[in-house]
Specification:
single chain; 492 residues; alpha/beta; TIM Barrel; eight-stranded parallel β-barrel; globular
């Protein structure tokens, strides 16, 4: 049965928020699975959402005073929305929903005065909004800001309590990619000082420019260094339907030839490094996002199976990771992907993983990329609950936030980079970047299923600009010292 919801997004003056905010609104089920956006923005700013689903959550990206420019969620305190006659005030609903989350967390123990104060301020401003109707939208925004702060304090403080009461994770992997390694430099010194896990490059484009003639010289050089200084290596990625993973000789091949090349490429590298590289991102972003070989969704599942089975056959002791990007899957609400066909219901990482589990694809670890998702820490933690439901270990395989304000986006900027824009607490600087790392690592380390965290670039220039631990001249940033101190604390 089709039904509609009418939603208002109001600024502090009671006016409709900018059109970009209104058009960002989308719905999902209660497990973050986006529904195709079928919205209409009325002249008065009301957003009309048409949906066939019941129990939906609403998400919009808005500027929140004293917190940042992030996506926020309203879900009727976890119950979801059904058809209602009244127009929903999104900001008020989001504040109430997050306050409910905070109350639930705070039942688990004692929390800091700062956390309690933010929670109480949220509740107070909601009450004031109900009394001062002419300024209700202002107080709703204040309530939402305090609710988000309370949620972050609560989830990080709970994580610290869990860590304090739990055995030390001696085998935990703190990593980065090793792509900028260049011998005995400051880079190498700082890297091995804070990290014990390195991602090595196996992008098929540069690795095998000419069919059948791979060049492993760069990989061998980095691997020898990792072995010499005690860094656990991981290969990434053996198969990727992105431009970087499709050399000219692979473009436009048939499904039969794609399978043949996949088995050859995956098997060759795993066999060559058996006993030296035991951890592999065997396939990358195969959830419709990077589908440059124009596979059907059934074929995406089967190519994943082939990657996993081939790696296992060549090395029964290998750890097989299926790597996923854009973890909230907002792109599916627009029916938008980076490369390849767009299907009626686009795979998100979660629905793709559901398909792998349903068809018994054998892999070991769920890989999750979390470049700044423009979400608060509690929302990220709730999303990680969804990735934990598969019952497998989780590696945060790629991660990064910037340390400086970025230039305005260009028309050539990738969708993935565009989605990583936004502010958190304050404009990005070294301190904000380090704060984000400390809170995220603390939250993630406390989760039983998470066994590794890989910040993507150790040195600038980086995929997420200015996200490295070192500047381009290899001098360290605050984030480097913060991780060193945090790692000592976590492993104390």
């Amino acid at each position: 049965m089709k039904y509609t919801l009418n939603v208002k997004l109001l600024d502090s003056d009671g006016q409709s928020m900018p059109e970009a905010c209104l058009r960002s609104l989308y719905s999902s089920d209660l497990h973050f699975e986006p529904l195709m956006r079928r919205n209409e923005v009325k002249p008065d700013g009301t957003v009309v959402i048409e949906t066939l689903e019941k129990e939906i959550a609403l998400h919009a990206r808005i500027m929140i005073p004293d917190f940042g420019n992030v996506w926020v969620t309203a879900d009727t305190c976890g119950k979801g929305y059904e058809a209602v006659d009244a127009t929903l005030d999104f900001v008020m609903e989001a504040a109430k929903s997050r306050l409910n989350d905070v109350d639930n967390i705070m039942q688990t123990g004692d929390f800091s005065p700062e956390c309690v104060a933010h929670r109480d301020a949220c509740r107070e401003f909601l009450e004031i909004a109900g009394k001062k109707l002419d300024k209700a939208s202002l107080f709703h925004l204040k309530a939402l800001s305090h609710a988000l702060w309370a949620g972050e304090y609560a989830i990080v403080e709970r994580a610290r309590n869990i860590i304090a009461e739990s055995p030390r994770k001696d085998g935990f992997l703190f990593g980065c990619n090793t792509f900028a390694y260049g011998g005995d430099t400051s880079y190498a010194h700082y890297f091995r000082d804070v990290l014990n896990f390195g991602t090595l490059p196996f992008y098929l484009g540069p690795l095998e420019k000419e069919e059948g003639k791979p060049n492993y010289e760069r990989v061998d050089d980095i691997l020898e260094w990792c072995e010499r200084v005690g860094i656990t290596p991981k290969g990434h990625p053996l198969w990727w339907g992105h431009e970087a993973g499709i050399p000219p000789w692979l473009k436009g091949v048939s499904w039969k030839d794609a399978q043949r090349h996949c088995e050859r490429v995956v098997g060759r590298s795993v066999e060559r490094y058996r006993g030296r590289i035991q951890i592999w991102d065997v396939i990358n972003e195969a959830h419709d996002w990077a589908n440059g070989l124009n596979l059907t969704q059934e074929q995406e599942v089967e190519i994943t199976r082939l990657c996993c089975d081939t790696a296992r056959a060549k090395n029964p002791d290998t750890t097989i990771i299926v790597n996923n990007c854009c973890p909230f899957g907002e792109y599916a609400a627009d029916g938008r992907v980076h490369l390849g066909p767009v299907y009626d219901k686009v795979f998100t990482p979660l629905s793709y993983l559901d398909a792998l589990m349903a068809t018994e694809v054998a892999f070991d670890v769920v890989g999750v990329q979390i470049y700044f998702p423009a979400r608060d820490m509690l929302s990220i933690n709730k999303l990680l609950d969804e990735y934990a439901r598969f019952g497998k270990p989780v590696h945060i395989t790629e991660l990064g936030v910037r340390c400086a304000e970025d230039k305005p986006p260009t028309s050539q900027e990738s969708e993935q980079l565009r989605r990583s824009r936004g502010d958190w607490h304050q404009p990005w600087c070294e301190k904000v970047q380090a704060d984000w790392l400390e809170w995220f690592y603390t939250m993630a380390y406390a989760r039983d299923e998470i066994e590794a965290i890989t910040w993507w670039d150790f040195r600038d220039p980086a995929f997420i600009k200015t996200s490295g631990f070192l500047y381009e001249d290899e001098t360290p940033k605050e984030i480097y010292f913060r991780l060193r101190a945090l790692r000592e604390k976590l492993l104390a």
